Amino acid sequence: MHLDPFELHRPASVGEAVELTRKFGPACDLLAGGTDLLPNYKMHLNVKRHLVALGDVAELRTHSLERIGAMTRLGELERDTAFRATYPGLAEAIGEVATPLVRASATVGGNLLVETRCFFFNQSYFWRDSLGYCLKADGDRCHVVPQKERCYATFSGDLAPALGVLNASIEIAGPTGLRTVNVLDLYDAAGDGIRRHHLAEGEIVTAILLPDSARRVRSTYRKLRIRPTFDFPELGIAASLDLDGSRVRALAIAAGGLETYPKRFDEFTAPLVGAPLTAEAITAIADQIMRSVRPVYNTFLAPDYRKRMVAVYVRRALEHLSGVRAEAAG
Amino acid sequence: MERGPAGSIRVNGQSYDRPFPPERILLDLLREDFNLTGTKRGCDLGTCGCCTVWIDGVPTLSCLTLAALAEGHTITTVEGLSSPSELHAVQRAFVERGATQCGFCTPGFIMTAAALLRDQPHPSREEITKAISGNLCRCTGYSKIIEAIEVAAAGTG
Amino acid sequence: MATTSPPGFRLLGGRIPYIEGPLKVSGRAEYTDDIKRPGMLFGGLLRSPWAHARLRSIDVRAARAMPGVFAVLTGERYPTPFGVLPMTHDETAIAVGKARYVGDILAAVAASDEVTAEQALRAIRVDAEILPEYADPKVGVLPVKEPIHARGLAGTNIQKEVVQHFGDVDAALRLAAHTVRVRGIFPGVTHAFTEPLVTIAEATPDGRLTVWSATQVPHYLHRSLSEVLGIPMHRIRVIKPEVGGGFGGKSDPLPHEIVCAALAIETGRPVKLRVDREDVFLTNHGRHPTQNDVTIATDPDGHILAYDIDALIEGGAWSSFGTVTTYYNGVLSMGPYKVPNFRYRGRRVYTNKPPSGAMRAHGGTNIRYSVEVALDELAEKIGIDPFELRRRNALPPGSTTINEFRITSTSFLRCLEAAREKSGWEGKFRKQPFGRGVGLGCGFYISGSNSPIHFTPKMPQSTVHLKVDMDGGIAVHSMQADIGQGSNTLLAAIVAEVLGVDLERVHVVRVDSDVSPIDLGSYSSRVTFMMGNAARLAAEDLRNKLLEAASHLVGHPVEQLVVGHERIEVRHRPEIGTSFLEALHAAMEHTGALTATGAYSSPPMGGTFKGARAGTAPAYSFAAYVAEVEVDAETGEFHVETVWAAFDCGRPLNRLAVEGQIEGSIHMGLGQLMGETMSYRGTRLMNPSLLEYKIPAPQQMPRVECLLVGEDDPEGPFGAKEAGEGPLVATLPAVANALYDAVGVRFATLPITPDRVVKGIEERRRSGRAWKGA
């Protein structure tokens, strides 16, 4: 499979990268690890004339416990024992991305901005041409939920929920300078599978910033899929918990693999702050979160099952973090 | 901001100076231009791991690597892992333990396994299983591959 | 390097590393796509975007005019139909008149490179009338508006109907004390070999055509090329380089192979045609999607009285091996058991989907799944142990089945004993907590089809030639196809064993129709049995020549001589003798290089009724597997922890290879059970990629304990039978029955994905049936 010709740009600094990205606007894509972009390019999905490769920007490639450069490879973080010990939930999420070979190239920034996925989108040019294209590439209708307005492609990154529950923020460089947003605020909850984040033209994610609190809380990530490797998430649940004795000091739960953007469920967890995390509370939250999500049938497993597993995965994550047993009645 | 490099790439200790366009994929460059056909094309989309090579010693999917971005890095393919007269310990163990059947995935597994044992001379069975979980084998059921890596680890220990 | 051969053997019976292993681990083994020819062009295929369409016209003018395009072909240039079975030639190299599935080949180009070829394909304009498309075989059994093929039965899409009745099933059902019905539903699965399909062809001015192809049956390719291209076979040379797996998917002559050769002829240039991974999925020829209804009746003690089976088999666009499949779904249901009354109706129906064909344990996997699940249910109903039920019904050695299969050797009872004992069945079955279970599944499979696809039944199925010259190297020629299973190694080992020489003296020459005598290739688990016998005879022929010469050298009559290690010596007096090379050189005086031939034909067998030959084989393998599973009842995820695989392949000749086949078969069987599926919406394949086609990961692989308990087969080479396909069959029902033991749910539909496990457990609970207290 070959790539259509493009111009490859190799900026050496963030400034240059921003300038190129601004200059080419919608005619360019950023190339990080390439493990998501290049398969899509091979399938001629939304191919651009210009590729801005970020691999030469040294400042994007360093990481510490507080700051992870966007071009840090997942494999590097996996090998960093201090990092793994400090952020167990994030380390689980990283270790469950695709395969070790993909993780050798894939980057943190790339995973945050991984293209949304759908059975009707992630197909070859021939396949899509033969069916009739979809909203997300070359066409004007959705084959999952037949209509012409909204794309239902699923957010399939593992890192965003795991970073979201750690209250991580991301640093964004743009034509007007740097800005910082909460990691989950990167994503457009009012958008869809196409309009999926709030990056303006010329903006580049440069780093992930982890606050002090991220090093205090306990955290975990659980991923549902057919195989324990290769597969994108059918569901990914991240949770973090900070307990003061038996009382909740902080609790966060986030999910990916369900809708068009990764979601955090503060409306259900907030009432628990200051209260003890009981078996009943765990069961109730798990149930509330399950009821609030709306997966569609565009991944391998049926949406009703994925939805039901939300409750199980949330409950198990909280059991794991709290030591409280809330097992559903057999 | 130039359109692609002139094309100078180091593979198995040899420099190749040959122009190639920016859209050239490393796997294609190795197989089609350099005749290094030990690296295999299985799925061309980064799933199967048949195309695994080392870039600076790290097992990497050559089918998802732009050749241009491999410039200035050290590439090792299965042809560069050992000499014709002496196979690498992992290669010997794969032969001895029947870890190859059709052999098409084998070069990829060899590159993955050799890097694992270099970085971690005594991996547990679980660590081996995880390390090879980006390489797909349709023949062996992985049993003899895992066994061969264990044997190689014991031998190099 | 071989070790621990049984007494009387130096190599066979031990663990013999594959002779091509060093080439494969070093990346030096040569596969078709590794080959380049001077001046080589690249082919490309235009595939149908329609599932069913009448082709009005195809305009290739723009494509032909493009720079770098050397040839553009459409269907009418080579319209001769072909197909693997002589009776069902319904394919053409390129579609003629109609397109029958999304992926059908409409046109082909040869160009300077693949990018140019792709651009040329996009310039081809096809005018087509869209026809009603048929995705469901249940629709196709009735008359349809637009039959997919004119040869469909009476205006339907039925390609083949088989009806067989032995004994009196209705009477047996009336007498039965226990009856169980199972409806098994099996989506298609595909081979997913790691090496994609690829062919190179070159037509030369001497009037010859050379074809290199990733094929597991070079001979059928050879014949089809000749038939379709109209070139006599002796002017075509087929070469099989290393093949990266087949599992049946490279056994049909495939259209792209013929198209590639046609492009080479048109252009006068070598042409390489690579089929990318998506198109490999669309080429398919995988296991048939099937629905089977199985009724098994027994007497009060569990003796089987009757099988009553109806199978609806989905063929996709073409016939392929389908007629055989339609028979196999019936006749391969019975062994390893005595079935006194048997009724079967099988219907294979065309649909507008990628063609189904032969895949590892062809025709046996799905039906044996339903039968073994039904037997598990029967054992429970009767109140006897599943092992006991099988034991009571086991076919004895030297028996004949009701459909006149000849059962020479069977060590099925030994398989049962070994699996039961090693698995600790007694302490586990129905005794472990909810969520944990063990299950038994059994199987049998043909060891080489007795009914070869061949010119005449009198031709041998396998022939092996040996040539040895003064250098002492023994060249072995045979058209058997090593596709990774280790047949080259076995061929060399048999020759070395008989001649007493070191393995490194023996060179298996790459399959090349110019020099390799015809062998029917790698399918129907025929190679060890048939090639093995031919190789043994060839080596014995050569040995006799050496013994003759040695007799003159050492002054002892031939009858007193035996083969030692690299020498020939007097029996019980090994100090008197001569070396292999001395004997060889003496034998070569006046004649030059020695040659020898061995050939194998299976003996006459089978009944005389219509279809009697289907499923007859010179021997059968037998299996009894126990699987142990752990189920997460809440998520439905499960892990198969161990499989105790008791297998009767007669005498295992290369334990390394036999274990490799068993382990690989279990992995492939688990794939079909746990998640592999050709997933369609209508006629459209949704998952043509290795990412979305869920081959199990290494973490999902159970521990496998291979229990090779077979006794020598009287006709197999050194007592051996097949081990390439039979090992798959028992895997699936063993796991399904273990799931039942674990959570009390029967699964008759595959794959058993976690959502279905959860649903099953819930339905059981809702119906008020507790299982192990849960």
Strand order of the largest sheet of chain A: 4-7-5-6
Terminal residue distance of chain A = 51 Å
SS element count, helices of chain A = 12
Sum up the overall morphology of chain B in one term.
Answer: globular
Class of the largest domain in chain B, according to the CATH hierarchy? Answer: Alpha Beta
Structural class of the helix and strand makeup of chain A?
alpha+beta
Tally of contiguous helical segments of chain B: 6
CATH architecture of the largest domain in chain A: 2-Layer Sandwich
Q: Give me the CATH fold name of the largest domain in chain A.
A: Uridine Diphospho-n-acetylenolpyruvylglucosamine Reductase, domain 3
Beta-strand share of residues of chain A: 15-25%
Percent of residues in β-strands of chain B:
5-15%
Spell the H/E element sequence of chain B. Answer: EEHEEHEHHHH
Can you characterise this structure?
The complex is a heterotrimer of chains A (330), B (157) and C (774). Chain A has twelve helices and eleven strands. Chain A has 330 residues and is an alpha+beta fold. In chain A, helix 11 packs antiparallel against helix 12. Chain A is globular, with a radius of gyration of 20 Å. Chain B folds into two domains: 73 residues, Roll (Ubiquitin-like (UB roll)), CATH 3.10.20; 68 residues, Orthogonal Bundle (DNA polymerase, domain 1). Chain B contains six helices and five strands, in the order E-E-H-E-E-H-E-H-H-H-H. In chain B, a hairpin with a 2-residue loop joins strand 1 and strand 2. Chain B is globular, with a radius of gyration of 16 Å. Chain B starts with 7 loop residues before the first strand and ends with a helix. The chains are: A alpha+beta (330), B alpha+beta (157), C alpha+beta (774). At the A-B interface, strand 1, helix 2 and helix 6 of A face strand 4 of B.
